[in-house]
Design brief:
By secondary structure, the chain is α/β, with parallel strands linked by helices. The protein has helices spanning 26-41, 60-75, and strands at residues 2-3, 16-20, 23-24, 46-51, 56-57, 79-83, 98-100.
Length: 107
């Protein structure tokens, strides 16, 4: 689900926020990746993925896509931030993905 952008006071730019919940299998991973690609094509270079408490990443291709997207956004002066990084992909923080704790109320 694509949510309304929320302003970032630090950069005075609204990030594009994409909420992710449930099991992220191959089909749902491609859907999320399509939304990310679309946002980038439309000039968005600040993206935030918000994983709900029930989110489970079951697609290795989605993990690979996240890493590529983060690199591409960083090269373009932007960033990919992740809130509520699921435990099964928490090791991605060591590879440079920015992660913050999930906000209260995200289910």
């Amino acid at each position: 689900m694509l949510l309304s952008p929320q302003p970032d006071a630090a950069q005075d730019v609204a990030p594009t926020i994409i909420a992710v919940d449930g099991v992220i299998d191959q089909v749902r991973a491609e859907h999320a990746a399509t939304r990310l690609r679309s946002a980038v094509r439309n000039g968005k270079n600040r993206l935030t993925l918000v994983f709900a408490d029930d989110a489970v990443v079951a697609s290795s291709s989605f993990v690979a896509f996240l890493l590529r997207a983060a690199e591409q956004l960083q090269a373009a002066g932007g960033r990919l931030e992740i809130e509520g990084l699921p435990s099964e992909i928490a090791h991605l923080k060591a590879l440079g993905l920015t992660s913050t704790p999930a906000k209260a109320g995200v289910k």
